[in-house]
Amino acid sequence: MKRSDITIALLALLMVAWIVWMLGNPKPSSPPQPSAQVATATPASATSPLVTPAPTTSPTSIPASMRQQPGGPYQPADPRWAERRRLRKEDPKYEWKTPIEFYGKVLDQDGNPVAGATADVVWTNMTPNGSSHMQVTSDADGLFSITGISGKHMTVQATKDGYYRETSKGRSSYEYAGFWEPTYHEPDPNNPVIFHLRRKGVSEPMIQRGPMLLGARNDGTPANFDLTTGRKAADSSGNIALRISKGSKINKRFDWTATVEGIDGAGLIESKDEFMATAPADGYLPHWTFSQKATDEKYQSEVQAKFYVKTGDGKCARVEMRIIPEYNETAAVDLTVYLNPAPGSRNLEFDPTKVVQSP
Fold first, then answer.
1. Largest CA distance in the chain
2. Of 124, 242, 260, 298, which residue is 20 to 30 A from 336 by alpha carbon distance?
3. Domain extent for 250
4. For residue 61, what pLDDT band results from cuts at 50, 70 and 90?
5. DSSP secondary-structure letter at 39?
């Protein structure tokens, strides 16, 4: 046999052997790929809300150094951000389906529980109206709770006939989905949210004037006001006077000073009380002053203040003033007065059905 024939025969044998080996050792298949999951949403209703499971990360288990504080600077290490991204991927509207729980307690001005108060509740959700409404009633201990609903944001206001609602204490807005929002709320049945109500007292006839916008000067010239009429009075008469002194403008700002003075024996006390139902027996001062520099970081172009006023003849009033140092080339004051016409009475409880005309 020729050498070329031998070579061809060997190559043929090698080819056959390679084919046999390939048939016995097939190419590995590719690893299985995860299948995409598509979240489907069913329209929610007030009676059967669609609820997305709450995040598995407990806020209390997150170290303080990592935890995103409501309204605080961004903390990317907080694992709830990753949980939020996951939930949004599964359902972009998950925030409006967050389970809501709320625990509240209603107290009066003395710290006693208020039974039978109505908690008016409105929350945003996936209903056709975009929100739902309910009312719950406080029990003998002033307690009430809200469970079994879902949404994103909720407002709660407590009221009861015969009481004022104290808006200066606490808040009425609560966020449930956005843990970074300033109003984010974490419900705790052992630490209910306190709602403050104030019992209405027995009112007496009152003279009520205003609010009324009245002109004033800003060159230091006093503007006198009569609390009985709620209007400007002639020079050297009336019950209180307002002096405004305004400096030159610098970049739309200016130094200015406002002083409220008692006239003919009248005195005043500035008050931060929301209701001002009873005038103090004593402690009245001859004047009150507010001063503002153009260079102050927290500059105010006007100021609002409330006062108890006792006139020279012993009548008590509560006076609300919005002092505007620059108004139509001069100045102005928005004045509201509640005056008890009975000398010596400190009762300033106001009932609009008992308003009387000035004598």
1. 146
2. 298
3. 207-354
4. confident
5. -
How far, in Å, CA of 60 to CA of 41, rounded? 30
Cβ–Cβ < 8 Å for 337, 207: yes
Report residue 49's pLDDT band, with 50, 70 and 90 as the boundaries. very low
324-337 burial: b if 16+ Cβ within 10 Å, else e: bbbbeebbbbbbbb
* Nearest residue to 307 (alpha-carbon basis) of 292, 323, 329: 323
DSSP per residue, 121-151: EEEE-SSTTSEEEEEEE--TTSEEEEEEEEE
What pLDDT score does 20 carry?
Answer: 45
CA dihedral 312, 318, 322, 323 (to 10 degrees): 20
The DSSP element (H or E) to which 24 belongs, if any, is helix 3-24
Among residues 168, 199, 230, the one where a domain terminates is 199
Q: Which two tokens stand for residue 196?
A: 């403050």
Q: What would the pLDDT profile of 127-141 be if each residue is shown by its tens digit?
A: 999 999 999 999 999
Q: What three-state secondary structure class fits 323? A: strand
Is 44 a domain residue?
Answer: no
- Is the domain of 175 the same as that of 229? no
3-state secondary structure of 353: helix
Q: Where are the alpha helices (DSSP H) in 166-281?
A: none
Q: Which residues partner with 195 through β-bridges?
A: 106
